[in-house]
UniProtKB/TrEMBL annotation:
Family statement drawn from the similarity comment of this UniProt entry: Belongs to the NAD(P)-dependent epimerase/dehydratase family.
Organism taxonomic ancestry: Bacteria, Pseudomonadati, Bacteroidota, Saprospiria, Saprospirales
Xref: SUPFAM superfamilies: NAD(P)-binding Rossmann-fold domains (SSF51735)
UniProt GO molecular function: L-threonine 3-dehydrogenase activity
Pfam families noted in UniProt: Epimerase (PF01370)
PANTHER family named in the record: L-THREONINE 3-DEHYDROGENASE (PTHR42687), L-THREONINE 3-DEHYDROGENASE, MITOCHONDRIAL (PTHR42687:SF1)
Domain NAD-dependent epimerase/dehydratase positions: 5-233
Protein name (record): NAD-dependent epimerase/dehydratase family protein
GO biological process: L-threonine catabolic process
Amino acid sequence: MLPTVLITGANGQLGTVLVPVLRERYGHDNVIATDIRPPLAGATGRFSLLDATDEESLRQLVRGEGVTQIYHLGAILSANGELNPLHTWRVNMDSLLNVLEVSRTEGVERVFYPSSIAVFGHHADLSCTPNHSVLNPTTVYGISKAAGENWAQYYFERYGLDVRSLRYPGIIGHQSAPGGGTTDYAVEIFHSAAAGQPYSCFLQSDTTLPMIYMDDAIRATLELMEAPTASIKVRTSYNLSGCSFSPADVAEAIQKILPDFEVRYAPDFRQNIAADWPDRIDDGPARNDWGWKPAYDLDRICATMLDNLLQRAEANSEVKD
Ligand code: AKB
C-alpha cells in the first residue's frame, strides 16, 4: 500500500527536489507539499499553505488527508538562526513537537526528521566526528537539532512512533537555492563560476566542512525511510557523509574546468559557526545498518554542477536573443 506523504518546508532547498522524487515514487496524488510561503513559480501538484507551528492546522490536514508519513523539512538554518535566536528556537522546536504529537495521535506511521552536522561543537573530535559523539552545539539551530534528535528518540522509545533522522552535511545542488545556512557558499560559488563572475567567499579558504551532492542526499533519505524497521539501530540521528572540502579545494576543482575563475575571501560571522563544525564525519553506522554509500566526490560534484548551470545559462541567453 502506497503511503500518503506530507512534506513541511517543501519550498526549501531539499524539498524542492525531494517532492517530485516522492511523487514519482508514491504517486502524484499521494504527496502533499506544504510551506509557509506560496508554491514556487512553475511548481505543480498538490500544495497547502501550512505553518507547522500551528498544531491545529497541521492536525486538520493530517486527519483530512489520511497522512501516513511526514517529512518535516521546515526549519530556520544556522546562519539565519543567529539573527533571532529565541524565534529560531520556538519555530524549530514548536514545529517538531507538533509534528511528533500530531503523528502519535493521528496514526501517522513514519516521520523523517532532518538533523545536521550543526549538532557538533565544543569537545567533539572535529577531525572525523563519530556518530555517538558528545553534542555541544554552538548555534541555536544546532541546539534545536540536538534537542530534536532526543525528542525523536523519545517518541520512538516511549510511543513506538517510527521517527528516522539523518545528520545532513552541507547540501550542494543546481536545482534549488539554499537559504540561510553556513554551507551556502558551496552552492553560491558554482553559480558565480557559471556566470563568469568572481566569487566573494564568506568563509576562510582553508575551512574544511562535510558536504554532500543533492542526488546522494535524496537517495540517502529514501534509503533510510524505506529500510526495514529492524535495521534502524540509531534513533537519535545517523551521521551522513558525502565528501569533505574547503573553499580553496572547490575553487581549485572549478579552475580545472574554468581556469579564469577567481575567488576572494571576506570571512564574516559564519566563519565562527563553521570553525566549531566537523571537518568530516564518520558515517559507519549508516553504512553498516542500512547500506549507505555516497556516489559523488568533489570532482564529480564540480563537473555535474557546472554542466547543469552552464547549460541553463546558455538556454537563458538563447531565450533573450
Ligand atoms: C547550514 O549550513 O545551516 C545547513 C546545515 C549544515 O545544516 N546547511
